[in-house]
Amino acid sequence: MKFNWISKATTILLSSILVGGIVTTTVPMFTPEAQAYNNEDAPISYQVFKNDENSVKQIVKKASPKVKQQLNAAFFKRMAQKPVNAYGSSISAYFSQVMHVLTTHAVSELGRKGQVTPAFKQDYRAMLAVYDQFKGRLDTDYQNSVNDEIDEADQQISKNKVDPDSISDVGDYFIQYFETNIRPTKITGVPSVKSKITKLTAKKTSSKKYVKVTGTVKLGKKANYARIKTYKGTSYAKLKGSRSFNKKLYAPKAKKVSATVGYYSHGHFSGVTPAKTVHVK
After folding, report:
1. Among 58-67, 101-110, 171-180, 184-193, where is mean pLDDT lowest?
2. Alpha carbons 41 and 115: distance in angstroms, whole number
3. Taken in order 59, 65, 71, 76, is the CA torsion positive or negative?
4. pLDDT by residue (tens digit) across 201-239?
5. To 10 degrees, the CA torsion angle through 53, 150, 11, 22?
6. What is the Cα–Cα distance from 9 to 199, expressed in whole angstroms?
7. Which residues touch 158 (CB under 8 Å, ≥6 apart)?
8. Superkingdom, according to UniProt (predicted)?
9. From residue 8, how far is each of 52, 121, 158, 174, 280 by CA, in Å?
10. Which of 89, 93, 184, 245, CA to CA, is 20 to 30 A from 82?
11. How many Cα atoms are found within 13 Å in the side-chain-facing hemisphere of 94?
């Protein structure tokens, strides 16, 4: 049985076909800063990064279950935490990792004699969709090299007898050229994170003489302590690694508690979040 489900003429539409079967262009009109043909270190805007991230997320959703398990929400969360690392400027080039995972699984999903399987089809289509997302930012010679590898793989797929090395070459060539052509040292226009206390609770202990205060915080600026106020005065609680704090205070008549998170050094406290007040339960 032959699987003539892909051809050279339709390669550039695979990222569109992949999502819902509807032909819609997923590759955006990139700004000059994103088209780094001869300026590999050129900055990339946060808007372009988000488009790349969202497009790749949608592509992964159409991949095989094993790929989705590996390229999960935690993977994309790490990517979003430092967008510049998503490209080629460090060892954490997450977009090329996506191609590596897709390629590895596609190869492993071929039959013993190179037969095409449903899982292989999912991951190979996803490989080409990822390539389509970025190929406009690769040098023309690099695009031609990857296209030649795709043509060779397509011919084997049409005969339902695929050499695993052909699939590996598609992924390997893309990764090599991606990390050569796209390695920005800066992402511009990243929205600033507003520092704030996201949760604050104050509860009396069983003795009713102490109040246990706990809180979590989201930080856009450096901070190391929470300043907590009750009618008894001010106390400080050191922030933990998970951006949380807690403190048990002697305040038997406390009705409410307020807290501010900031940076404390040499007897001076500078708040970075607005004060948050809660009633004691």
Report:
1. 184-193
2. 41
3. positive
4. 999 999 999 999 999 999 988 999 999 999 999 999 999
5. -60
6. 54
7. 2, 3, 4, 7
8. Bacteria
9. 24, 16, 11, 17, 68
10. 245
11. 21
Report the distance separating Cα 194 and Cα 157, nearest Å: 51
Q: Which residues fall within 8 angstroms of residue 211, CB to CB, at 6 or more apart?
A: 202, 203, 204, 205, 230, 248, 249, 251, 254, 257, 280
| pTM summary value | 0.67
Ranges in the chain annotated CATH 2.60.40.10: 196-279
Helix residue spans in 62-194 (DSSP H): 65-70, 73-81, 94-108, 118-134, 140-158, 164-181
Which residue type does 60 have?
V
CA dihedral 156, 162, 164, 167 (to 10 degrees): 40
Can you identify the CATH homologous superfamily of domain 196-279?
A: Immunoglobulins (2.60.40.10)
